[in-house]
Design brief:
Length: about 350
């Protein structure tokens, strides 16, 4: 009887600890830890080298969601633009990268077809992609840009939407002086008056507005909202890396849903990394997600047609040779598995 009482007392003392464990704040994260890669794959020795223009496009959002403990090693590199991501891919320095629709077009025309294939579509926001002028600029319309200097980020969405905005306004590419710059150099050039306008995106545009810059035209309706994940042919054909890539994309997909459900936690994690106030970033993030939920979807014919339209636009401006069939840079071997990812509409 005494032993029975001791047992009950021990159980009573242990119960609060059990309940505390059940209430761990990691519970929400654990529920998202779905892995699509084959559980039988031996990932020992597998290193996945990844490049992206922003940390939120990969490792940062996985870390915040608690999904970064992968069975393979990840080497993540933040670069200033999708064009630089693909330069690294061409040099075989990374296996996987993400960026807009534009960089792979130009990269694919280089030696070895750019050493890339487009393997998945990332649906995302087109906000903060703008053509801006300084606070006291006399330029009030796109037509006023004739003969003016415009900084833009080469081989990126900024390159495309600038060409499209000029074309729609009846201003030819040759009517203006376009100067290819990095996002940071372009912002500096606008603020110091070296250029009359800036076509850029992301933090460069937000920083420009913080310094009084004015939107001449937004590209939110010009761009499709399709972004891509790219991989090298070698990584795609390697069974282990192929499985690791699929697993990483699944984690990224799930991490973005976690962030939508936990915007405060996500903002608190990421804002310091980009030197923003948490509340400011959370407001920005909510606006972006309201416009378009970031998620991974398979490649489809609409996406390929959109990519071909971009190629044709550049061809008409003599920025690319005519007759390019861009469908050749798409790899559909991930489509079936990606189509099984949970739908978040």
């Amino acid at each position: 009887m005494n032993n029975y009482k001791v047992f009950l007392l021990s159980l009573f003392l242990l119960l609060p600890l059990v309940l505390i464990g059940c209430g761990n704040s990691k519970t929400d994260n654990e529920s998202t830890k779905k892995v699509t890669a084959n559980a039988d794959v031996d990932f020992s020795g597998v290193v996945l080298k990844i490049g992206a223009a922003e940390g939120k496009n990969g490792q940062a959002i996985l870390e915040a969601a608690g999904l970064d403990k992968t069975p393979y090693k990840v080497e993540f590199h933040v670069m200033q633009g999708g064009n630089l991501v693909l330069e690294a891919m061409a040099a075989n320095q990374i296996d996987l990268g993400t960026g807009s629709q534009i960089p792979p077009i130009f990269a694919s025309q280089s030696r070895n077809d750019g050493n890339l294939k487009i393997i998945a579509t990332k649906k995302s926001t087109t906000l903060d992609q703008e053509l801006v002028v300084s606070a006291n600029s006399p330029i009030k319309s796109v037509a006023d840009l004739k003969g003016k200097k415009i900084a833009y980020v080469k081989s990126t969405t900024a390159h495309y939407f600038l060409a499209k905005i000029l074309q729609n306004a009846g201003v030819s590419w040759n009517d203006v002086e376009t100067i290819a710059m990095s996002t940071s150099d372009g912002l500096s050039a606008l603020l110091t008056g070296e250029v009359d306008a800036l076509a850029s995106y992301g933090n460069a545009i937000r920083s420009a507005h913080a310094k009084g810059a004015v939107t001449l035209q937004s590209a939110d309706k010009v761009l499709s909202g399709d972004f891509y994940w790219y991989a090298t042919p070698d990584a795609i054909q390697d069974p282990k890396k192929h499985a690791a890539i699929l697993d990483y994309l699944s984690r990224f997909h799930e991490a973005n849903e976690w962030a939508r459900q936990h915007p405060e936690e996500w903002a608190a994690h990421y804002a310091p990394q980009i030197n923003q106030k948490t509340q400011d970033y959370m407001t920005q993030y909510n606006e972006e997600e309201k416009q378009a939920k970031t998620r991974i979807v398979p490649i489809d014919e609409t996406t390929i047609a959109s990519e071909q339209d971009i190629v044709n636009t550049f061809s008409k401006l003599n920025l690319l040779k005519a007759g390019i069939d861009i469908s050749k840079i798409f790899d559909r071997s991930f489509d079936a598995e990606i189509s099984k990812f949970k739908k978040y509409e």
